[in-house]
Amino acid sequence: MSLASVRRITRPPNIKTLVLRRDTTCGCGTRMLTGEEAGWDRSAFVVRCLVCVADAEEAALDALFSDPTDAPGMQQWVAEHEQRLANRLAQHSDTLQVLNDRRILGSRSTIDHIVVGASGVFVVIAKSYANAKVDVRRAGGLFVPVRSRLVVGTRDKTALISAMNRQVYAVRTALDQNDAFADVPVQALLCIVDGVFPWIGTIDIDDVQVRNLNATLRIVQAAGEYDAPARSQLVRQLAKHLPPADR
Predict the structure, then answer these.
(1) Looking at residue 13, what DSSP letter applies?
(2) Are residues 85 and 169 in the same domain?
(3) In this predicted structure, what is the pLDDT of residue 67?
(4) pLDDT of 5-21, one tens digit each?
(5) CATH number for the domain including 8?
(6) CA-only gyration radius of the chain, Å
(7) Ramachandran angles phi, psi of 58, nearest 5°
(8) Strand ranges inside 5-160, DSSP E
(9) Are 236 and 242 in contact (CB under 8 A)?
(10) Is the pLDDT of residue 155 over 80?
(11) Is 112 inside any structural domain?
């Protein structure tokens, strides 16, 4: 099977990307606003958020390359990169506090990790694309707006960037419920655990920092003004408005 064939298969054939002309809601409960990108499901005649589109692409790829008899092995592989990040964060529990798998109220969407450190709050998603080259590609200019795409291996993963920005908005909203936390910075970190990154420079797209595991840890451990009592207050505020996903 050719690479082009693989890419055609993993891109849901019934979904195309569009720019919303009015506010609407995805089937998962995510609210989408006018001007945002979304996916139009031509088979169901409904609009899907980019997170659901990305999930469909992941499912198509898994179905293409995985052996159904090896499903437990696939689940273990998927969990390993999450566990690696969680273990490394746990090693710094004296300076970092972490909320895992939090639900966004009014939505089925969840946030993998919210890390509270001395320099602020971080929304972190961990992904594993073993030995895949991580790159940013830009198109446009002059009379056309410049647009950036996140490419991992041969796959366009820009939908992850849009998903992270929505999660950052949810965290920002939770903090803004208390005026004392209005100035606390919230950063987005997409941690590609085992990807191949450029030797020079960093990858940042739409305020999302794309890093490997070690770089992610360096960022969340940066020095800042929030001491242990302040971090505990931030965690309580976030936990109040972003409950565990299993509730």
Answers:
(1) T
(2) yes
(3) 43
(4) 333 434 455 677 788 88
(5) 3.30.60
(6) 19
(7) -60, -45
(8) 15-19, 24-25, 31-32, 37-41, 46-48, 97-103, 110-117, 120-127, 134-141, 144-152, 155-156
(9) no
(10) yes
(11) yes
